[in-house]
């Protein structure tokens, strides 16, 4: 890679100024007179708690939603963006949290088909030459001839960004761009975008929950709180302390729960578990692990090494090809009855997809574990809705789920609040075994503290906790013992006191890609 | 013993000729289905297109005396059925498999209803190109009398492969079939693309039907198709959604279908029914094995209802 890429064209980066932005969903005021000023050629971070309105604000700018009031100016001129297509024409592009690439098309095909002016008949010789010339000017490369399905998450993220740049979009909006990346990949992508911004080629607006990224890459910061502007200014003048104040106001953070010594018997035992992917390849191999009462066993590993398959197997979403699961010495089949009898609970990753019915209401989703038992289920199999709502209301308050009402479809909650609602459902009862996967993915720091404390509380009450996480800090903070999963195997298990970050990191990369 | 007299030679030549003849309708239906499935829909109703196409082609040829006009009319009848399928499936909460089965019944029913009067009278059939005169061997000459539609089918498959790779519309069809959200984000009208792809696939299946009634077997009756339209769906899976592999797969199915008649040609009639069942056994075998195959899972368009 060359030291500094030749600029595309000098001073192309636009500035963006949104004023008086207001958006109301039913009863809920998601945005109230918000102002956002992004200077040309800067990296601007948009911060706020879960549900503060960050995604809503950028979706208004992108034309997914029509704001109820407010104007957006690009380089001082008012723009009327009614659809993402208008945004594209105005030079505003967005990288979404989920990828919008076509998996079976190659990178080159994805870049060509995304162009509005793609020729009817594609001369691949010419197009390839053009793409290569374009790539040569870009600070990062992606293999052009491999189907996107075979690219790593980091490469896909880069390709998404390249796609916007190839479309000549100079105002880039990134909604939690680094959540799918490893810290190294995140550093690479953000570093390069920052460089391009400072050369005046692009302007970047990024939503993030990570203070580390804000202090390392952002020039300016805007903070939203409950739909209103809480503050803004240069990143340098706002320390982490100030930023967190702005985000959560005077609410006190939940203190880190203390770890009480608990000495119990083995509760959960995984004995020689094997499973396969639908395409026949092996997902994990010979997993042996014991979790005791009042113990958190953390499974560390780079994503895609079989952890999600293991969680799916424990949740009954994936059949085991061999091995048994025991709970207190009794064989456990992942079925609804057994979950209830053995008091097994869980929070899978991507809870909106794996643990909720998106179109059902928050209250109904919270009742999934209890709707077929008294008091909700009465005589003759009839459900009584009053206790269902009452219970939901209670849990919504206790776990501070931000929702317009218990009857709102759960898919309309912000990402963090879906997580809280599911956690409220799973943690509120008497828990013997808890299986959690990446519980703090995409959560703001206050929620992170809250949820980690909840998990620690469950442990202190005697639950056996299996915590699968890609975030090593989380494991180091919570786990009593660490197991490292790599290429579908667990070859390293150690008590937290006898290991450290480097040793774990080494084992994570042991077979690794 | 002379080579041309040997039983093996006779069987092989009969199988070659049979494979070319039998594979042609398979090829058209499969390439049509390939296009439809690449856009993210399954059309199980192509059996209906095939049978209706056969009837319409025969009737048109009978009335106009122009067999090629019959081929065209068969294609148009296929577009008609494809448009109905495509439009119905675009309604919310309509399942393409269920619509396909209904369309199969509708197409064959229509053909049987309007086809009654054409079972007896003979209509002009499609000509063939004698490509084997140079061999001087009568059995080879007969085997190499090839209908132009066979070559048209191969050309269509090659053209479609190029279309998928090197045209904007081809990329858009693949995008639509693999990720509807991505297509929508590009401003593509997903339903429209799928309706057009189903209609074009229906055209090809209709043309395939005309081959049945106007060349081989070369008459119109209600037992004309023996499930080729359905088997073509299996064939597309076997060909992993690649038009060029569809050519080979169609040939394989054609050869399997030609085993029975070829053995009959040398007087072996034992196991006749078993050999005639060869294509169906092949279908079952392919479906069972490809369901577990890694590459077919990878290459399946992501939007297909059977894959999701
Ligand atoms: N389509 C919708 N209908 C109803 N309410 C909605 C809709 N979209 C968002 N909301 C509500 O608007 C509020 C702001 O949501 P938004 O997604 O903007 O939050 P966010 O700041 O992006 O949070 P997170 O960090 O969790 O992603 C939330 O309370 C959410 O429930
Ligand atoms: Mg958001």
Structure description:
The complex is a heterodimer of chains A (513) and B (308). Chain A starts with 15 loop residues before the first strand and ends in a 5-residue tail after the last helix. Chain A is globular and about 65 Å long. Chain A has helices spanning 54-62, 84-90, 107-113, 124-137, 153-166, 183-198, 211-217, 240-248, 307-314, 336-342, 351-354, 362-366, 385-398, 415-427, 445-460, 472-478, 501-508; strands at residues 16-25, 28-38, 43-48, 69-74, 77-79, 92-95, 171-175, 203-207, 220-225, 228-234, 266-276, 282-292, 295-300, 322-327, 330-331, 344-347, 433-437, 464-468, 481-486, 489-495. Chain A folds into two domains: 16-248, Rossmann fold (3-Layer(aba) Sandwich), CATH 3.40.50; 266-508, P-loop containing nucleotide triphosphate hydrolases (Rossmann fold, 3-Layer(aba) Sandwich). Chain A is of the alpha/beta class. A six-stranded mixed sheet of chain A has the order 6-7-8-3-9-10, sandwiched between helices. Chain A has a six-stranded mixed sheet with strand order 16-17-18-13-19-20, with helices on both faces. In chain A, strands 2-1-4-5 form a four-stranded antiparallel sheet, with helices on one face. Chain A is built from 17 helices and 20 strands. Chain A is 32% helix and 25% strand. Chain B contains 14 helices and two strands. Chain B has a two-stranded antiparallel ribbon with strand order 1-2. Chain B starts with 6 loop residues before the first helix and ends in a 9-residue tail after the last helix. Chain B has one domain (5-307): ABC transporter involved in vitamin B12 uptake, BtuC (Orthogonal Bundle), CATH 1.10.3470. Chain B is mainly alpha-helical and 308 residues long. Chain B has helices at residues 7-38, 46-64, 67-90, 96-115, 138-143, 148-166, 168-178, 180-185, 190-214, 228-238, 243-265, 272-276, 278-291, 294-299; strands at residues 129-130, 145-146. The chains are: A alpha/beta (513), B mainly alpha (308). At the A-B interface, α3 of A face α7, α8 and α14 of B. The structure holds adenosine-5'-triphosphate and magnesium ion (MG). Magnesium ion is lined by residues 54-55, 414-415 of chain A.
